[in-house]
Every structure is written in structure tokens, then in C-alpha cells.
TrEMBL record, chain A:
InterPro entries, alphabetized: ABC_transp_permease
Domain of life, source organism: Bacteria
UniProt keyword Transcription, yes or no: no
Transmembrane segments: 6-28, 33-54, 60-82, 89-111, 141-158, 188-210, 216-234, 241-261, 267-283
Statement: the UniProt record of this protein carries the keyword Membrane: yes
Pfam families associated with the record: BPD_transp_2 (PF02653)
Protein name: ABC transporter permease
From TrEMBL, chain B:
Name assigned to this protein: Purine-binding protein BAB2_0673
The organism of origin for this protein: Mesorhizobium ventifaucium
Pfam families according to UniProt: Bmp
Domain of life: Bacteria
CDD domains: PBP1_BMP-like (cd19963)
InterPro entries associated with the record: ABC-Purine-Binding, PnrA-like
Amino acid sequence: MDITVNILLTIATAATPLLIAAIGELVVERSGVLNLGVEGMMIMGAVGGFGAGYLTGSPWIGLLAAIALGAVFSLLFAVMTLSLATNQVATGLSLTLLGLGLSGMMGTSFVGQPGARLPNLDIPGLTAIPVIGRLLFGQDPIFYISIALTVAVMWFLFKTRTGLTLRSIGDSHTSAHALGIKVIRYRYLAVIFGGACAGLAGGHLSLVYTPQWVENMTAGRGWIALALVVFASWRPWRVLAGAYIFGAVWIGQLHAQAFGIPVPSQLLSSLPYLATIVVLVLISRNKRLTMMNTPASLGQPFVPDR
Amino acid sequence: MKKLLIALMTAAAALSVAATAEAQEKLKACWVYTGPIGDFGYSYQHDQGRLDVEKALGDKVETAYLENVSEGPDADRAFERLAREGCKIIFGTSFGFMDPEVKVAKKFPDVMFEHATGYKTAENLGIYNARFYEGRYILGQIAAKQSKSGVAGYIVSFPIPEVVMGINSFMLGAQSIKPDFKAKIVWINSWFDPGKEADAAKALFDQGADIIVQHTDSTAPLQVAEERGLQGFGQSSDMIKFAPKAQLTSIVDDWGPYYIGRVNAALDGTWKPGNVWLGIKDGAVKMAPYTNMPDDVKAMAEATEKKIVEGWNPFTGPIAKQDGTPWLKDGEVADDPTLLGMNFYVKGVDDKLPQ
């Protein structure tokens, strides 16, 4: 029983950063903006979170710094693509490259230093309940934030008027503009929200997952998050499912190897990617629904005419 | 106008001559790394060696480096660029730089080249490597003594000879203490991914291992051991700061003395291409202080270290291959080419080698 709980906890830790980054990017893409800079914003969050936590000794300040740094960094993308109407794909890619380089430079003095770890939740009486205690009441704080965030985004996009407006901008910015909606302002806010989420995901890496700073420590998780959004066809609950399927298969293949199952490790290593894609393709088989969910003006620059 | 132009050109020419004259006084030594110097692992340790050179030789040298150079055609340009920029001695620190370095070395016969962990040489290209497997034998012995479950978790990157050699040496060390010692092996197909390394460590611990060994570069597995109150070994650097209670020891790469010696040789004109494989006795492989273990285990580790310094090789027969066929006869020592091309397990390894 203990091993099952441990495995589930490990899966949650592996899935959390993917989920947070993907949920943020989902909101951005729903507003019609494609930000390929997730990896860059994530690594900035990781270095900022570690640095602030290390310098102040408080992982909570680190958490706030991670969110802030991700948001500020995404502002750069917002100014370029929204105010100056540059190409979103190129700008996003350069944001990733810039983030990887800049974070390496900022983090030089943090290399080889142990940092502060965010403590796991510990509620007297509840956390000690066998099996479900640790699963429900004993995880790291960012895990709870990630679940709350997913529910909040689901509610916001599909149950609120502002969410409807945001989605309509993503489908047709010209029509939204004609109706008098402030397209650029909405998109600015969406991009900054996405940046804050990516930063938080990075903070999870350097404050919970592996409390340390090393260059390139995101190791491609930003790209996985981006892929999750597309394969989840821009639905929050599918992003949640995708992140956890990825995490489960990933942890499962490690256990299979340790168990001595004679399957080539290269194949096992690629399983999480394959499984996630297959499952998400299966659940989004309905073409009409997928079309409906795809933001129609995704990636197109918008210049309001006066 | 013409006069002014000529005067300017002469001035410029004079300046550039002055610049080269000054540059010639200093020897420019350059390094090419495959990873970021901030990995706190393999590339980090090479860069520490570069800094040692700066410290030891001070004004006599000027150093430069290129990091994150991918192995393959991209490396050609890196080496060529450094050679053109006036580097007199260039160290390529990764296996995959071998062919690019051979190619560029031909183009620049006056530049001295050095390549780590490869096997091709040339008139102006020497090779060097470190015997990390010596340290791994000691890790195996300590693991067998310290483990209560009799099972170690071993996180590995890619099935190349260097890594296979390490697993074999570790197992031989462990079997010398506990003949039925087991290691669970997990390949993560990456040199460096803290998250994956942490996940692999958790999986191995969950399946009953109580000691973690790694042939990947981050401190993540040790941090997991620390959190769980279990033990493990560091890699490349002394990682004690990350796991004050969990780290037993660590194999530390110390390239400084070698680099200082080679750059010195380049300075006084005695440099010749060499072929060295440095071990514990040369100071290139160091064991971090033995901690978190009883005195008798520590004494055993120190005794083995001493034996290795005195010339004993962990790959001394009798040793059988995984399937039980004999490999080395009693007292026979494996030769270096066999070790450098090692693609089979020794007896007792509980894994199928990915091909």
C-alpha cells in the first residue's frame, strides 16, 4: 500500500509543473496568441524562485518571485507581439532562447548551492490518516495551487462573461474589435497570466521538485506543456488528464525498468510521449468539437485600425 | 587628405603589431565544453580546471572557453574559431569532439590540441582520460557494507563503454563484500535532467533499494536520498552541501593538475601529444571525504583506495561475464583497449544491456 501511495505522490510531483504551464498557455492561446516562449518563461521562474528563496532564506518569497519573474518576462513578449505586431512564432522562440541564456547568466552564483524547499502540507490529524492522508493533505503547496488553478480557469473560460469575451477574441479579433472590445488589453492580460503560470511552474522545479539551480534545468518541460495544450484541444480538463497521463506513464516506465522488465529502455523512455498523444487524440476524436475549440485567430497578429 | 590617410593606416598597422606582440607574450589556452559550465557536474569540473590554470600560471596565460557546443559538425566551427582567434593550445572535453578535432588539428599544425575520453591521435593532437571506474569499485564496496536491503539503485544515462565499465566495477566491488548483492538499474537516456533523475531515484527507493548510485550529472538523486533518510553517492563534484546526511562519498573529477602541466609544457615548448589515462594515483580522480559511515567501513574504503594507488586494478581476474562464460583468468588484468570498448556486463548484474 505504501508503495502505491509513494508512486501516486511521485506522479503528482511530475505532473504539476506541466499542468500549471499548460493551463497558463491554454488561456493565452484561447485569446488567440501563440506564445512559444513557455520554456524560456519557465526557466526564468526557476532561476528567480531559487535565487529569491536562496537569498532571503524563505521559499515562499521564492514562490512569489518565480511568479513575478515569469510575468515580467512575458511582458516582453506582449509588447513585441501585441503593441509592435511582430511575428508571434519568431518572438516566442527568441523568448525561449533569451530565457535560457539570461537565466544561466543570472544563476552563475547559485550553482552548487543548496536552496530552500517549500514544505509539504502537514495538518495535524488529517495528514496522518493512512493512505488518503498523505495524498489529500500531505503534498506540496503548489500541487493544490495547480488543481485550484485548473478548476478556476475552467470556470472562468466557460462560466463567466469575461471568459466568453476572451474566447471570442481568440476566434475572431476583428469582430471582437468591431464590437468595441479592447482586444489588445485582453491579450496583454492573458499573456501576463500565462507568463505568471510558466514562472510558477519553473518555481515548482527549483523549489519543490529538485530544490537547486542548474542551467537548463527545465529540460524541455515547457515544450511538453505546449504540446499538451494542442493535444488537449484547448480544454482545461483534458490538459489535466494529459499532464497526469504523461506523469503516470513516465513514472511507470521507471518502475518497470527497476522491476527488470526486459523492454529496451529507449522505447520505455518514449512511452510517455506516445501514450499521451494517443490518449488525447482518442478523446478529441470528435472533429466538430475540436474545430469549435480551436481558437480561429491563433497566432495571427492584430493591428486595430482606427 | 592622402597624407592623413597614410598616417592613419601606419598608426593602425603599428597598433595591430603592438597588439600581436602583447598577445604573443601570453599563451592563449582554450577549452570547448559540451554542457553549460553551470551544470555543477562534468563541464563544471573541466571549467574548474581551467580556472586552476589561470590561478597557477597567472599573467603567463590567457584563457577562453566555449560552452554548450553540441557534439558533431557544430564542433568543427567551434574548434576552428578558437584556432583562428589565436588559441595556442585547445582542449576538447567530450567524446563526440573527436572527429571534429582531428579534422581541425590537420588544418592548424601549429596549434596544440588535446582531446578527452577519445582514442584518435595526430602529430599535434594528444588524448587524455580519467579512470573513474577505480572510484566506482570503492563505491560498490561501501554500498555493500552500508545497505541493509542488499539492493542498490543505479541511475544511468547511455549504454556507452564508460558507463558499462562503471556498472561492472561497482558490482565487482559490491560482490567482493556481499557475493549476492543486487543493483537495480534504470536508464533515463539523458546526461542531465534533474527532474527525471529525481523521479528515477524515487522509483528505485520505492522498490526497495536503500543506496543510490548515479552516472548522470545532477544532485537531484542525492537530494531525494536526503529527504528519505537514505544514502547515496555524489557524481563529478563533491555534493555534500546538498546531502549532508546522505552522501557517503563522491567521485570528484580534478582536471586542474593535468591542465596546469600541459599548459606549462606548451609555455616552455616541451609539449608533445600524449596518451594518458589518469587515475586516483595521479590525482585526477579524487574521492570526496568518506562520511556518514562507521569507522570500519571508512577504513575499508581507504584501504582499497590505497591498494588502487599502489597499482592494483579492479578488473583483475577471475571475472566471468554475465552469462557465466569466463572473461579474465585468475590474476589476469584487463587491458585498456578492452576496458575502453567495454560492451558487456560481468556476472551478477541484473539487467539486459541496451544495444
